[in-house]
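Entry for adenosine-5'-triphosphate complex. Fields follow.
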Amino acid sequence: MNSYDIFKKLTKGIKFDQRRFKDDFKKLGLQQSASGALDKPVVPLAEQEHEPNTEGKEEKAKSKKKKKTLNDKQKQLKLQQEQIRHRRRQLGIQVWGADVPPPVEKFSELVTDHEVNNKLVANIESQGHTLPTPVQAQAWPLMLQRRHILASAPTGSGKTAAFLIPLLHGLGGPKKKGFRAVILSPTRELASQIHRECVRLGEGLGIRAVTIANVTKAKQKYGPQSSQKFDLLVTTPNRLVYMLQENADGPPLSLANVEWLVVDESDRLFEDGQRGFRDQLATIYRACTGPSVTQALFSATFAQSVQDWCRLNLHNLATVTVGLRNTASEDVKQHLQFCGSEEGKLHALREIFRKGYEPPVLIFVQTKERAKELFRELIYDNITVDAIHADRTQKQRDNVVAAFREGKMGVDLH
Ligand SMILES: Nc1ncnc2c1ncn2[C@@H]1O[C@H](COP(=O)(O)OP(=O)(O)OP(=O)(O)O)[C@@H](O)[C@H]1O
């Protein structure tokens, strides 16, 4: 026990006048505080470390608390991310790209989390759908953020509504600015189908969606001299390219105000086929001269060439794949029939029909010549069959689709 300890013990509870006993304090090695009250003794630095430093303790506690909050936040974030990954796994969704938002779980989230018009959500619910399909669940939040997207999901997985809902939301309502959204589809029939769906989903929003039935009339209706009272165009690329060809007064149709460009069945449109879709697409992209054009490409299969193009041309692209890449829908039963030769195909087909079949039946062939040939063969087999190909008029094509939809025709050739 040193002198200070002894002094402390002896003077416990007593206050000293430090000014009066200044010399004694000095002798004892005690320090005077500014207030004049007995203070801590001057202790060498080495000893100070052992002194209980309450200020440091507080800071340590604060930083510990801060660290804990940070850790808690990180843990929460990790948990959320794991939950999102789990949900994507459950839905068979794979995503690539930075900061991809979580998939939506319910239609109502579109209203609560993404400020989508109630009417639009009511329109999709009124079709009897209860939950978003996987491609819708992931494409909606992405497109609502105006991200470029490349999505592949099986046939019949609801891709049309996957791009239509964000598009209709983005357009908001009618404006007299001409076309602000363009949807490209490889065939006129598909374009009409998308247009029908668009009208159904957009009911009550006032957005004017049109499709080109006749190019000459369309030039007058949608040209620069028109009222510009239209917002969305659904068309095949070749019709649109025709409408973009310059004449003496400039192009008959302007895409200068386009904000959205959607390519449906993008893998087919990107094929290096005889119809040169790529060149047509390039012409259309060039005509969309607006300051910001969000692009969305949807298809049933995943094509590497399409992804390469998107990565090269679209900033901050998000890629979404539903199911295993390039596998058929699990809802479709498939059967592989070996036919041996070209002629064998017809025999095999006849055998299938002879055994009995349940209409409607759709047969896809490679070329219009093949469609014509097969049509000529089947028409004599007492089968109600018709064909759609590029040599048929729009009226004929529409009639075939109508008869097929109404069940008046058993077999349709494409
Ligand atoms: N959320 C949903 N729940 C149930 N059915 C839906 C939903 N959304 C769309 N559908 C329906 O699924 C069917 C197929 O949709 P859609 O034609 O959009 O598929 P798709 O993926 O575009 O197919 P394809 O690759 O053949 O063009 C339609 O009848 C559509 O009304």
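NOTE: The chain has two domains: 87-322, 342-413.
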